[in-house]
Each structure stands twice: as C-alpha cells, then as structure tokens.
Design goal:
11 helices; flat; two-stranded parallel ribbon; 2 strands; mainly alpha
Length: about 300
C-alpha cells in the first residue's frame, strides 16, 4: 500500500498515483520489484521508478499480440464492431433492408423445418432404392422447398419496400401486398416446368385461400367480410352446411378422377391412392400383412 503525504514523484514515466497504478498493472518488471508485503510511500517508490525509466510501457495492442486477448474483457476492436452492428440494426433507416434479409432467412429456416421431416418419412416409407438414394431425395426436396420460400420472401419484401418508397410519407397502400405477392408468385412458382414440391406449395396456399374467402363471405362487412356475397339470412345455413358439402364433394371428385382419369392426378397422390384403393383384392402370403410394403 502507499503511505505518506509526499508529493508525487517527478518522473517522466510516473507523474501521478494514476501512472503508478498503470505501471503496477501493465509492467511486470516494475511490479515484481515491489514486495507484496511492502508498505511504501511515494518517496520510497522513486528508486523503483528510476529503475524502469526509459522502458516502454506496453499498450493494449501490445498486450493482445504478446499474450492474446484479455480473458475478462473482449478487445476494444470487438466492442467497436458490436456497437456498430447494434447501431445499424436499431437504425430505422435500415429497417427495410433488414426486413428483406430476415425474410429470406426465415423462409429458408421454415422451408427446412417443414419439408425435411415430411420428405424423410415419405421417402423412406414409399420409395424404393438404397439409403444413399433416399437421403439424396430428402436433401433435394428440402433444399428446393427452403430455397423457394427464401426467394419468394426476398422478392416479396423487396417489392413491398420499393412500393412503399413510391407512396407519400412511405405509407403502405392496400394493394401493395397483392402486387408483391403476384410478382413473387410468378417469379418463383409460376415460370417453367414446376416440380412436385412447388405444386404442393401452391396447392396448399390455394386451399387456404379458398377457406379464407369462404369465411369472409359469411362474415359481416365490419369484420373483413365480402359485403353482399352471402345474404344475411342465409349466413347461418351456409356456415353449418358448407363444410360437409365441401368435404363430401372433394372426396367424391377425387375418387371419380382416380378411377377414370388417374393420369391427371399429382404423382404422389396417385401412388398413395393406388396403394390404398387399387391393390390386389386378396392377401396371398403372410408377407402381404407386413406394415411397410410397396405393392
């Protein structure tokens, strides 16, 4: 410890008690010259200071190079980088660009989470081939699903951002989402020969759109409904009977198409229906009773 009321040592390397603390912390030679049990005053420290006079006191950069980053506090460069990144993320000026990047990332993650388990189960249950071939099919379907959703999210968010900048006060118009979805849908899902993965995605979206429009048709105008589409006195009956009629007609039509025009059905649906409804009428051997088979 430091004792006494002597004035600070008049030395180039040690002008104040603060400088002494810096020397003790960062100059090992200087620190080792002071016994841990010593109780020295400032005048008594002067010979020790003189002994290290002229030596360079290591800077923070020197310490990082010589003995690596500080294990307690990260380097100042990393702090500056983190502060800059956080400032950009919180700046409203970059909100539109960051929304595009996040949309692409979330589309890829969601596509992977949805397609991978589905493809894994369907391929290993209903596809023939080696394990390597099946894994290749699973990876291919997962990559395509994730890529297409990420690409659509990128295009959609980009168009939305561009349209908003064209409006006064950067306000979103009611038709912006329709235009952005139209452009993204054509660019990703509407061009060229479509794979089974794209067809499944579009059919899934179409079914959800039809259900949404059906609900809107029986809702009141103030609840986002389609005003005047279904008369008020018929809304109750339509709500109660629409789903039974819809489900019955859907199954009736798919069974009729499968029986007389199976080539028009999607391949995976056709193979599933063939497995369930068009197999041999009798069980010939005990092997036909196993859980997983392909005939």
């Amino acid at each position: 410890m430091l004792q006494g009321n002597s004035p600070p040592v008049a030395d180039d390397n040690c002008q104040s008690i603060h400088d002494l603390g810096f020397l003790l912390q960062h100059n090992r030679d200087f620190a080792f010259k002071i016994p841990q049990s010593a109780r020295l005053s400032l005048p008594q420290l002067q010979p020790v200071v003189q002994s290290v006079k002229g030596r360079d006191i290591p800077t923070a950069a020197d310490r990082i190079v010589s003995r690596g980053p500080d294990p307690v506090r990260p380097p100042a460069v990393m702090d500056a980088v983190a502060e800059t990144v956080n400032r950009i993320l919180l700046d409203p000026q970059y909100a539109g660009i960051l929304a595009i990047l996040k949309g692409a990332r979330n589309g890829a993650v969601y596509g992977t989470k949805i397609r991978f388990p589905h493809a894994l189960v369907m391929v290993f249950l209903f596809r023939k081939g080696s394990v390597r071939e099946k894994l290749r099919l699973v990876f291919k379907a997962t990559r395509q699903h994730a890529r297409n959703l990420a690409l659509f999210a990128t295009i959609y968010k980009s168009v939305m951002y561009a349209l908003r900048t064209l409006h006064k006060q950067n306000q979103e118009a009611s038709y912006d989402t329709f235009v952005a979805g139209l452009i993204g849908g054509y660019a990703v899902f509407g061009r060229g020969i479509q794979s089974s993965v794209n067809q499944q995605i579009v059919i899934y979206v179409f079914a959800r759109v039809m259900l949404g429009l059906a609900k809107m048709s029986v809702s009141g105008p103030g609840q986002g409904g389609l005003k005047g589409l279904v008369p008020r006195d018929l809304r109750g009956k339509v709500t109660r009977n629409s789903w039974p009629v819809f489900a019955s007609l859907s199954w009736a039509m798919v069974m009729w198409i499968f029986r007389w025009h199976p080539e028009t059905l999607q391949p995976s649906l056709r193979s599933s229906m063939k497995y369930m409804y068009d197999s041999l009428p009798l069980i010939h051997t005990v092997l036909d009773t196993k859980v997983i088979n392909y005939d």
